[in-house]
Amino acid sequence: MQIEWLGAVSIGRRFVSPISEVLKIPPRSMGYGMYQHDVKEKDLETGLRRTVEDVVAERGVWVNYDTKSMLEYVPGLTGTVRERILQERPFKSREDMRERVKGMGKKMFENAAGFCRIEGGDEALDDTTVHSKDYVIARWLVRDGGKGKKRMGRGEIDEYRQREEGKRVLERAVRCAKALKVNADNEDLTVEEVMGVHRMLRAEGRKETSASLEERGVELPAEYRDKKNLAKLPLLQGLKGVVENMTDFGIFVDFGVEGLSGLVHTSKLGPRGLEGVGVGREVVVDIIRVEPERERVGLRRHLGRGGRKEEEGRKEGRKRVGQEEEGGGEGVRGKETKMKKVAKRKKVVDSDDSDSDYVEE
User: Fold this and answer.
1) Tell me, what DSSP letter sits at residue 288?
2) Contact call for residues 52 and 73 (beta carbons, < 8 A)
3) Domain-wise residue ranges, the chain
4) Which candidate, 239, 344, 219, places its Cα nearest to that of 302?
5) Which among 194, 157, 145 is positioned nearest to 174, based on CA atoms?
6) What does 249-265 look like in DSSP terms, one character per residue?
7) What is the dihedral of CA 37, 40, 42, 47, to 10 degrees?
């Protein structure tokens, strides 16, 4: 085959599965930057492996055509099972894969199902990162509680991804959690889990969706805006609020409950503190505590992905500095105590000046 043809095939395969093609190239030969040869080969390989792990965790792998090297990053799969997947594919659905691949037990399937995507199969949800056990939640969200065919169509998911985000998303999530707790006998289902499935359904813009919600927030569902329903208020996250008052100990935010403001204590403002905060300005908050008897609601400033990482980094830094100071302090105190003991044991007799019997050095 001519070199030009090989190049065309390589470019085409990069469109099909970019990460799979990158894995074929040694990290030192990728040509990323003029200083990459100053980095250790092991560090380059570690960086590539972590990047692929992040991609698989975010997007999953398409088991009908992704390479063996990509399947190695799917958690829970053994080498033997990976080989059998390559031999048995293509699959019509995740369930078809579980039945046809020998050695894929129930536990292994549970661990890997959310990362194994089937494109063009019988069930459109198999081409998302939604886990099989959460299909009942996904169907409820897409159909807004309405019943339909058991299998989800691709067109239904595409239509769902085009819907407007905002308060209706959170309201739907609240209704979904309530309905499935009764109908699906799932008492442990939370609104946060439902919102997680929502983000997975919108996987084509998963990061952008999450970021937009964290930046703009969503309005409090209408059923919780009456102060009489304060006892039923769940610990929701990412709510849109307006700063009503600022004090030395925190800020009071109107987050949607009529006649009631929540307090964001100064310790709950996050790493940004009062940056971008002012009376009348919008802020995104999380509910962390509800006291119906005292008509009080505790809030914290919503951090988002970047803010959480920054806060974790700050905490780790403070912890490290504290450990260093504690270790150094003990060393200094120990040295001072030892010097005092030596000084007390040392008796210096001054023949010329008999007024002083002991002298500390």
Assistant:
1) E
2) yes
3) 1-122, 129-216, 217-302
4) 239
5) 194
6) TEEEEE-S-TT--EEEE
7) -70
Q: Cα–Cα distance between 125 and 93 in angstroms, integer?
A: 9
Tokens at residue 196, please? 């997680």
What's 94-150 look like in SS3? Answer: HHHHHHHCCCCCHHHHHHHHHHEECCCCCCHHHHCCCCHHHHHHHHHHHCCCCCCCC
The radius of gyration computed from the CA coordinates of the chain, to the nearest angstrom, equals 30
Tally: H helices and E strands in the chain: 13, 7
**CATH number of the 217-302 domain:** 2.40.50.140
> Which amino acid makes up residue 86?
L
10-residue averages of pLDDT along the chain (361 residues)? 80 77 70 67 80 79 84 85 89 89 88 86 85 86 75 81 65 80 70 81 51 62 85 85 90 90 90 81 90 91 62 57 54 47 47 42 39
List, in order, residues 6 or more apart from 90 with CB less than 8 Å away: 64, 65
**Which tokens hold the place of 328?**
């150094």
pTM score over 0.70: no
Residue keyed to tokens 């894969």: 97
User: What gap in Å lies between CA 173 and CA 181, rounded to an integer?
Assistant: 12
Grouping H, G, I as helix, E, B as strand and the rest as coil, residue 217 is coil
Whole-number pLDDT of residue 315: 57
- CATH number of this structure's domain 1-122, picked from the four choices 1.20.1050.10, 3.40.50.970, 1.10.150.320, 1.25.40.10: 1.10.150.320
pLDDT for the residue numbered 262: 92
> What is the reported pLDDT for 207?
43
* DSSP designation for 206: H
Please report the DSSP string for 50-93 in residue order: HHHHHHHHHH-EETTT--HHHHTTSTT--HHHHHHHHHH---SS
- CB-based contacts of 72, cutoff 8 Å, min separation 6: 82
